[in-house]
Design goal:
There is one protein chain. By secondary structure, this protein is an alpha/beta fold. Helices cover about 40% and strands about 20% of the residues. The strands form 4 sheets. It has a 7-stranded mixed β-sheet, sandwiched between helices. A 5-stranded parallel β-sheet has the order 5-4-3-6-7, with helices on both faces. A 4-stranded mixed β-sheet has the order 18-2-1-19, with no helix packed on it. Helix 2 packs across helix 6, helix 3 packs antiparallel against helix 6 and helix 4 packs parallel to helix 5. This is Aldehyde dehydrogenase family protein.
Length: about 500
């Protein structure tokens, strides 16, 4: 997601004293939050979801004014945010993410007497979340990273995005009140504002992990700061992607018009300001889709971009693409700036032959955050798997359009090595909030290959702790014999090691 953390609106910078106070409040809340039973923490997440839904009219009105995004898009995103919180509430109650393991003492263990060893995942401590600009609800104050960190029983300090400061304050106030009223300790949810404040909090020794959704440039700077601390901390950054699409000759022949309509819809939605927007589309030369694509693009009205700085970056990136050698227009699109510096864009679709693109791809491989895509027209016998392995490092998504008659096994395997999500016969925009979802990928899509969507996102904010021969009264609840939280426990009984390997011999 290519947004910059540069200040874009006049907003008060959180003072150093307030940064210090916020860090200490989060630190003080951490033990009390971790000790709360899952029923209390899960109910608090649901209470937060309900509070957001109850205030949807006011929240959406503020978001529309600050971001220029459409009401329907924002209402859907706010609903998604509430659903995500409820999903994590069920995750908390399930308890599988704690990975509780109990190895009972065994005097006859295969390697000599074994002590009683028990392990489970525990909260990392205060988490700093850098809110995103293009998802003012789903990846912002109460969005996915915050939900996952809270579900893992960590206090959260959110650094507001400068693109929607009033919405950030509004959401943070609702969230803090809902969580405290539900029984969570004061300091569980806090907001800071300003670039300097965000960096200061990232460097604070009481902060134990950080998450970020934004540009590669800003994300790399913040990741380096997190790594350079006297005690480095995990930094989970989702940084951007061109999300390549590969269409086989059979797919284009079978459903070309539908492909053209889907492509334009995916590229132009929310003015292309989505981290999963398809930026490069590989399809057969002579595809015959120029007219269908041009007609679909012409039917898309202009859409305001998030803020003047995003529009400025898009304009520069678009000009660089237009000036690349061998590029031809299919849908020229436009970008205009109004009297307030806001940019208004319509979709731009271009094409370039593979033999022109392949020797010098760098100018066209950089993510351009806005409604633009490039078709790379390829000979029918092009080895897409080799192309993917050769040109791409890490992507959030790879999409394949094919027919049942075509063998795309090699391409699918290559896609799995390069992306966190591999789609077939669809479009990457729209990330379902569901347990199995993965929204991540190898560098530079993310800093670590993890996911920021789906229940596996909770793992980023947990760490494993083992207890050896621990007295029963000091064991955390998930590891006690009476299992008061009712979480799944993997138990290795005494005597088990004598049979290790037997199933493999069978």
């Amino acid at each position: 997601m290519t947004q910059d953390t540069t200040q874009q609106h006049t907003a008060p910078e959180t003072t150093p004293d307030r940064v210090e106070a916020a860090a200490r409040a989060a630190h003080a809340a951490a033990p009390a939050l971790a000790a709360l039973p899952p029923t209390v923490r899960a109910a608090a997440l649901v209470a937060l979801a309900d509070r957001l839904a109850a205030n949807a009219d006011d929240l959406v009105a503020t978001a529309m004014e600050e971001t220029g995004l459409a009401e329907a898009r924002l209402r859907g995103e706010l609903n998604r945010t509430a659903v995500q919180l409820r999903l994590f509430a069920d995750t908390v109650l399930d308890g599988a993410h704690l990975d509780a393991r109990i190895d009972f003492a065994d005097p006859d263990f295969a390697l000599g007497p074994r002590p009683d060893v028990r392990s489970a995942n525990e909260p990392v401590g205060p988490v700093l979340n850098f809110a995103a600009g293009n998802f003012p609800f789903a990846f912002s104050v109460a969005g996915g990273d915050t939900a996952a960190a809270l579900a893992a029983a960590n206090p959260v300090v959110v650094k507001a995005h400068p693109g929607h400061p009033r919405l950030a304050r509004q959401t943070a106030a609702l969230a803090a009140a809902a969580l405290e009223e539900a029984g969570l300790p004061t300091g569980t949810m806090q907001l800071i504002e300003g670039q300097d404040a965000g960096v200061a909090m990232l460097r604070h020794p009481l902060v134990k992990a950080a998450s970020f959704t934004g540009s590669l440039r800003a994300g790399r700077l913040l990741a380096d700061i997190a790594a350079a601390r006297p005690a480095p901390i995990p930094f989970y950054g989702e940084l951007g992607s061109v999300n390549p699409v590969f269409a086989t000759p059979g797919a284009i022949a079978e459903r070309g018009p539908e492909f053209a309509a889907g492509l334009v819809a995916s590229v132009s939605g929310s003015a292309g300001q989505l981290c999963t927007k398809p930026g490069l589309v590989f399809l057969p030369a002579g595809h015959g889709l120029d007219a269908a694509i041009a007609d679909a693009a012409a039917a898309v009205g202009e859409h305001r971009m998030l803020d003047p700085r995003i529009a400025e970056h898009y304009t520069a990136g678009r000009e660089a693409i237009l000036s690349a050698a061998g590029v031809r227009f299919i849908a020229p699109g436009s970008i205009r700036t109004d009297e307030h510096g806001q940019g208004w864009a319509t979709p731009t679709i271009l094409a370039v032959p593979l033999d022109v693109f392949r020797p010098h791809p760098d100018a066209l491989l950089t993510e351009c955050f806005g409604p633009i895509a490039i078709l790379v027209e390829s000979p029918a016998d092009t080895d897409y798997a080799d192309l993917l392995e050769t040109l791409f490092e890490g992507e959030l998504t790879v999409t394949v359009h094919r027919t049942d008659r075509e063998d795309i096994t090699a391409l699918a395997r290559a896609a799995a090595r390069r992306a966190g999500r591999v789609l077939f016969d669809g479009w990457p925009t729209g990330v379902a909030v569901t347990p199995a979802m993965r929204h991540g990928g190898p560098w530079p899509a993310t800093t670590n290959g993890g996911t920021s969507v789906g229940t596996a996102a909770i793992a980023r904010f947990l760490r494993g702790v083992a207890y050896q021969n621990a007295p029963a009264d000091v064991l955390p609840a998930p590891l006690r014999d009476d299992n008061p939280w009712g979480v799944p426990q993997r138990i290795a009984p005494a005597g088990e090691s004598a049979g290790w390997g037997d199933r493999a011999r069978a």
